Amino acid sequence: SEGLAPIAGALPDDAGAVDGLAGTTGLEAAVADVGVVVETATTGRATLQANFAELEAFVDRETLVTLAADSGPVTAAAAGLRHPDRAIGLRFRDPLNTPLVEVVVADQTSQETSDRTESFVDGLDRVPVVVRDSPGVVSTRAALALETEAMRLVGDDVAGVAAVDKILELGFDHASGPLEQ
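Structure (tokenized):
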């Protein structure tokens, strides 16, 4: 299926990492013997459910089935699985070298799946933060709220752009202010 990408684990940053890659055009071959499958398609719910249902025929019961699309409803996609308790979301920040990975728990996600996913993310040398399935990315929503309030402060003539950014940089240890970003 379009968008499915198996991940066996973290690849090293050296040139030898390419040796660990293999290509295939068949879903069954792509997901055989993997512990985690990451769906990256940004399609509608019905397509995500169909992708998950098709995938499930080719993976072990223990395989984690994850959705990485920022806007994808994990709970809805999980409904396509016979074992929806293994569905979970992974939202990587851009740029990809940012350590944060939001682990998105669907309504059906089991605690075991959440724990195993956190361990998987740890193994990628990233920091997992567990959140509930909701529209949008939690970190983006929080950043937008901060940026919106910063704009209101300037618009209401409470403080200038430089002052707002400096307050956030010095007072809250931000690398740069929300308005500079």
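The chain has a mean pLDDT of 86. The helical segments are 27-31, 45-56, 74-78, 111-123, 138-155, 161-172.
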